[in-house]
Amino acid sequence: MSRCKSCGAEITWAVTQQGRVMPLDAAKVLVAIPTGRFVDNGSGQLTPQVEVRQASLTHFATCPHAQQHRKPRQAGVDRDPRVPARGSDSRR
Q1: CB of 60 within 8 A of CB of 70?
Q2: Residue 89, domain member (yes or no)
Q3: Fewer beta carbons under 10 A from the terminal one: N or C of the chain?
Q4: Is residue 77 part of a domain?
Q5: Contact assessment for residue 30 and residue 38, using Cβ atoms and an 8 Å cutoff
Q6: CA-to-CA distance for 25 and 2, rounded, in angstroms?
């Protein structure tokens, strides 16, 4: 494990599909993932069933100094067209 140079938090590293390294918070969080199934909670109401897993958050989401460490996008690496660009207003 290593530490963030800016805030001192413990971090680990992952490699993205594009081959870039990305810092992750060392502390795990629990996430609920819908299974697509529903269960009857006994009162006639259906409740979505979820699977709970541990996951890591990108340290860019929690570091107060993340902008100092972000690198510009590589030329030729397109962003996912399904995800709105930062700063765009998708409500128009």
Answers
A1: yes
A2: no
A3: C
A4: no
A5: no
A6: 10
